[in-house]
Amino acid sequence: MEKKYTTKFITRTAILLALALIFQIGLKGVGQPLVGPLVNFVLIISACTVGTLSGVIIGTLTPIIAFVLGIMGFFPVVPFIIVGNILYVVLYNSISKKARRGGDVLGIVLASLIKYVFLSLSVRYVVVLFAIVPPKMIAVFSIPQLYNALIGGVLAIIVKAFLPKSMFLRS
């Protein structure tokens, strides 16, 4: 069966992408401790309300746009951020759907851990094979990534609980 992408899917994905970009651009000077959780919040809210593909699209475009706009100045990590975001969204949605009780919480915790481990190991052991990685970059892609994913995910779960059913495109 072929899935059709409706005007609602495209519009809601675009609006959520715009929200993530507002956080990235508007809070550029504030830095990762605020922007990271907010972008992760948008990734989970998009996955919950629009679908996994919406979260994947947003998780792919936000690091690319951040690099193009000069927010993320170190290109070698961009593909790894994209993969980390995709892992986060896909794992969250898969786990939250399959777990009978506490699926949202379990999904956020496990997806956050996997994203953190992936990004941390990638920056320490893979990116260094083809680029000189500043120590500050290694620090940014370690434990703060776990905090960002957990905080953004928990915030998304809280907001999700208050959203009307009409906000959800998927069952």
Q: What's the helix-strand series? A: HHHHHHH
Top-tier CATH class? Mainly Alpha
CATH architecture annotation: Orthogonal Bundle
Over all CA atoms, what is the radius of gyration? Answer: 16 Å
Summarize the structure.
By secondary structure, this protein is mainly α.
Describe this structure in words.
The chain has 171 residues and is mostly helical. It has a single domain (7-167), classed as Arp2/3 complex 21 kDa subunit ARPC3 (Orthogonal Bundle), CATH 1.10.1760. 74% of the residues lie in helices and 0% in strands. The protein has seven helices and no strands. The radius of gyration is 16 Å and the shape is globular. The two termini are 17 Å apart.
Topology:
Layout: H1 7-26, H2 32-49, H3 52-68, H4 78-98, H5 103-126, H6 135-140, H7 143-162
Helix pairs in contact: 1-2, 1-3, 2-3, 2-4, 2-7, 3-4, 4-5, 5-7
List keywords for this structure.
171 residues, mainly alpha, Arp2/3 complex 21 kDa subunit ARPC3, 7 helices
